[in-house]
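ok so i was messing around last nite and threw this chain in just to see what happens. nothing serious, just curious
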Amino acid sequence: MGNDIKTYHEQAYIDNTLRLREVLKTMPPFTRDYFRAVEPTTSARTRISYAYDIRVFFRFLMECNPVYRNYRLDQFTLEDLDRIEPVDIEEYMEYLKVYRDPEQKQIINGEKGLARKMSSLRSFYAYYFKRQAIRTNPTLLVDMPKIHEKAIIRLDIDEVASLLDYVESCGASLTGQKKVYYEKTKMRDMAILTLLLGTGIRVSECVGLDLNDVDFRNNGIKVTRKGGNEMIVYFGKEVASALSDYLETTRKLQEPLPGHEEALFLSTQRRRIGVQAVENMVKKYTSQVTPNKKITPHKLRSTYGTSLYKETGDIYLVADVLGHKDVNTTKKHYAALDDERRRKAASAVQLREHMDH
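result:
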């Protein structure tokens, strides 16, 4: 392949594909058919999480089912899959709430984690059942865990302003090493936060940005969405000025390490900044401004989606800009706001002119 520089997303795809290969080596041989079959419709990252989830199921059988006590992972066959009863699936759901992984680390699944692991297993079973490789599909006979909608935590308008003010000026209250670090990263952090709050892009899309993805003529950035398709997301004046301030100062002065020359956002180690680093940075600033709200980059995305929906009332636009494949995903997230709008609707339509008596 020579030493041509791969984009962040190409590299991630290669890494994930190799990782999946390693995981599959530890799984029963027949499972490979399933992963080959879902390849066209899933990302490499999704396939890895499916593989981890399904491996947990086989480990559960070895640990909790006397029939499989002395099995090795690679000994399972399709016949074993066919032997599983709905009650086994129910026990598995119970097991998932708290269990230990092979390193004896305790794993706890809440509603969301439980639902994801069960949907991985359902998809796995459905594949072999549809191909008539097994006669039964016990996952269909078990009720799926309920998901209770949590209130969406997001920043209010005044909190967004305080956050950006704080990032701009908190240097005054810092001393020593902290101050040095702050001065070094201030422009970058300001650019990242303004970009996340002003466009609603995902943190993975943000760290994947290259210098040439930013177009100041049209005020747009080219992002690679979750499914791999590219899209131009437009930004306003505040994002434009935060980005150009950063590019003119901090980014210009940084000498990136080989292979990281194209990255828009660099870490203090002069490499492309990672998802974890952005998460830590968001936490560092927001914990000072809104200590009672746990704010993550994803919550900044919700904050943007909320403002956009409040301004436009157009759920299809919000879905498009946020890069949701399915508008129902968007509706679910912003349903609470509809109530406010419905109330306004009550007084928006007048039936008769008010008659003055």
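not much to say yet. The chain has a mean pLDDT of 91.
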